[in-house]
Amino acid sequence: MAKITPGEFMRQVQAETRKIHWPSRQETVTTAIFVGLMTVLLAVFFLGIDALFGWVVSALLNAL
Question: What is the pTM of this model?
């Protein structure tokens, strides 16, 4: 691997930094709302699955 001088390294870092696309405020808010909604939906889903499995296990243990 070729050695790079500190100056060349800094130029490469600056060139890569210019390529970054920073999201707008609207994109950030929209994404945050979407993540919040998906988190709530998944929490409710897993709560339901957990309750269902709990009921099944309880029914099986009471049947013994």
Answer: 0.64
